[in-house]
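Input set for joint prediction.
Command: fold jointly, output tokens.
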Amino acid sequence: MLRRTALAAASLLAAGLLVLTACSGGGGSAAPTTPGEPDPDASVAIRLVLEPSNLDIRETAGSALDQILVDNIYQGLVARTPEQDVVPALARDWTVSPDGLTYTFTLREGVTFHDGQELTPQDVVWSLTTRRDTPAWRDASRLANVTSITAEGQDITLTLTEPDSSLLWNLTGRAGIVLKEGDTVDYKTKANGTGPFVLTQWRQGDSITLERNDAYWGEASGAAEVVFDYIPDNQAALNAALAGEVDVLTGFDANLKEQVEQNGDFALVLGKSTDKGTLAFNQTSGPLADKRVRQAIRQAIDHDAIIEALASGQTQYGPIPELDPGYEDLSDVAPYDPEAAKELLEDAGYEDDLELTLTIPNFYSTTIPQILVSDLDEVGITLEVDSVDFTTWLTDVYTNHDYDLSFVLHTEARDFENWADPDYYFTYDNAEVQDLYAQSLAATDESEAADLLEQAARIVSEDAAADWLYNGASVVAIGRNVVGMPTVNVNERLNAAEIAKSNG
Amino acid sequence: MIRYTLTRFALLLLGLLVASVLIFVTLRVLPGDIAHLIAGVGSTPEQQEAIRERLGLDRPLPEQYLTWIGGLFRGDLGTSLLTGTSVVDELAEKAEVTVPLGILSLTIAVVISVPLGVLSAMRRGRAAGTGLSVGAQTLAAVPVVWAGMMLVVVFAVWLGWLPAQGFPRSGWSDPWAALRSLLLPALTIGIVEGAMLLRFVRSATLQAVGQDFVRTAAAKGLTRDQALIRHGLPVVGLSVITVLGLQVAGIIVGAVVIEQLFSLPGIGRMLVADVAARDLPKVQGELLALTGFVLIVGFVVDLVHRVIDPRQREAP
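tokens >
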């Protein structure tokens, strides 16, 4: 999934502003106050960057929707923790047969939908079957090799044609969401789930409000109300925080750390994330079909300088980030070395005359293109930056593969599949990688599956199939009176159930 | 007068028709596809085609245009492709923010510009007049975004008097809170537009000073200032009304920027989001409503002008 994180745009104007705010700070920040008792009636306002275009969890794509609806409103048999572990949700527990072909889940009793109707095993069977059989629903294909879904008492059994080491993980996402059978709710603007919150108001272009679900089967949420405020601009978000209008900022710019912390009401936290700043190479033809050119570009880029400029995140030299299974430090594959890059380019027959275009969605900040232009210039590559809006990007780059280089922040966890799919816009085609990935899926043992992914990831990196500019951090500014705010991978999932706020 | 009104009205309708065709055609030229946006990355061409068909985007363009215009006559601007809600309803909801913001901005602009503009003209050559003139010139050159940020820093972040962004979720049910949240954005637009208007009022006043009837009044024993205020200002007022009509367009453009900056859920912010999402029926409706508004204001200004100014009535 692609994710828009619009970083500060009007940097020039912001600079002037920052000078002023800096003057107002009066030096040291106030000592942080110890949080008082959590107030069960509190309303917590959380700034988010990207608003979903509608709320239809069945069809509409985009992690903006998963971020707020999955866990909070909709639930599946299983869920995942921010640390990416699979845990029970609507299923109390589950067993997997040794051959990896049968999954049996025991459904909790006493679960109700937000409209008051009780959740039945039949709802689960219907949801999963309909998801699998309706191609228009997101992630339908993730259940493709589930042959039967049946219920007996509270037990729900999934039978597979072949083992699938990613099934449980997939069930924690859209593919596993349990809806009411034949629900007539207007999914585009309303929601009816089983989660700890009820969706009470959506003011388009402004905010989405969730209220505590008093009939929730699990532990009641810490706050009575959570309001997601959509404020795309970082400067506006900072102002809102300083004026006390929001309690938490997500998707923030780590460069504004001092500004947000100056009055002592907020603390900036950098959590890990599976965001991968990916520089894709169209390697079907032209200069980038030559591995030496791709390798040269990788070695020409100063990855540490990028991390420094973003003031957050860490380097990542392969397709798998640290939070996902199969991670390995691959920094030895493409160390920063402009001299080596020049030699590679010379070998490939491009001396000082290579011109390439970078196609980049226009909601990203100019930081990355600026660094790329100057780094590549050092080794004799002229990079032209073509900033396009997202729909254009979808058509030109994603669908038609009409590009040289493209930058997108891929946020989805465990998305190695794209490197095993030659039709994906990465245009990377390697039979060995595809085979290793298939083996990893078919593995019945988790560590074996991870090991196979690790092998495949090294090949992808050694082939210079792309460059990974950075592994982003989840930058969150949290009010000192707020506890329980998740900080890991919040761009993709934001479980608000444990957030609580004190008035002290 | 009746004939003039009818002719002017026919022109208004023609303007709207031309605008509607232009809006429709230009939007079709934009690259990008909403079906793909809804289906998302990882979707198959078949899935996108199914969505396109469901939304009626596979039909010929003239047919789509006629459906749209046909609906317009019934007061129906169509439905959003993304949320399925009525465009008219959405516009009405967002107008609750944008219209008061516009009125407030215009009021502030007038309150600033008229007295100061006249004063600046009357004190021409003296320190106060020059100061005002230079100040207005400077303010008029200030980008709206920058002015907004400065106001936020002073009034929201430092002083904490006014909210930095957003609009109360309960809307106008708490009028004071709603008004407070519009004050900084309206000031931002009002000051910048007011500065531009001030320069106009100043030159209109200076022109009036040189007019024969003002000089005649002065010759009859009034002071220059008295003559100007009693006889010159009505003429200045007339031209100010015309410029105000033009100013409305500027205020709408200002609102698009300012709503973004202050996170106000108004028409401008909705428009920006809908263009990005290629929700064409909505963008069409929004643009037509805004264009229509500007055209209607122009129409009204022309009529008012004719009613007030006797000199125009004799003209054919």
